[in-house]
Amino acid sequence: MKRVWQIAGGPAGRSYSDVFVQHGVGLIGPGDPGPWTATRPDTDFGSSSVRRYATRAHPGDIVLLRAGNSVVRAVGLIASDYLHLPQFDDVNGWDLQHARRIRWRSLPEPHDFGKPVFGANPNRFGHVNNTELCDYSRRFVNSPPTDWQLVSLPCLPEEEPSLPMEAVPEPIRPILGEIQDLLPLMWDRARFGDHPTEDELVAHFVLPLLRALGWRTEQLAVEWRDIDVTLFRQLPRIPTNCHLLIEAKRLGAGVEGALAQAKRYATLLGQPLDVVVTDGVRYRLYAHAQDYLPVAYANLTRLKRSSLDLFTRLARP
Q: Are residues 16 and 89 in the same domain?
């Protein structure tokens, strides 16, 4: 009988379930410490989840892609042994290089069992013992249509080259270096205290970056009409002169979840505006002309070649 496992698809505000389904993978972290091997202790990876993922699951086993402790988003079958895939070193800011190939079948709508069927605090990856869940999983796999269980796996994305600091536009190198130096301190509560607020991130990270990209002080509005940061092509600061809106979230937040709020602000202004969501470190730009598809991204602590496109789009015209 097939064993049943569960894998987390990320927190509600920072989900990466779509990445799993798109690329035919199941990913867990932390992956930056490198590949799992039998000689490495669980403490290298923060818990036993990575060892369990690498050794106890087998091709053909069932996996439930969960959200929280009560919702199933997709059902899959493991299709490979353990892998360490460096191209997934930044999935919405998470390092998720520990991988298995998985053939997924997304549910038409997430299925909520209405109770914590995965336990109160489920692991990133773990064995499912709940009888109701196991029955649900096996009925799903054995019910038609079953053609998804044999389809070819999608191609994996290529690993993106890192961007060396010498390739970064010279005006923004100082602020990038400062951010990379400050972040370890900011995450250390014992040394730093409470994490910085959204307002602090705007003041210390976002505005200095924009100034380095050529924007003048009078072109940058903070909390103008309740918008975190508004860029103006020219004065006066009126809706028709808006160039771009930026919605800021707290450090480490799921910035992708801020898109809806940023779009609402653009709608209220009545202007066809691109929007950026950021936590001061990760910046994702959505294009109005492409129905707010994400078109540029940069993680200032994990620079890739594609980061240059984000810097170009953010620079003052």
A: yes
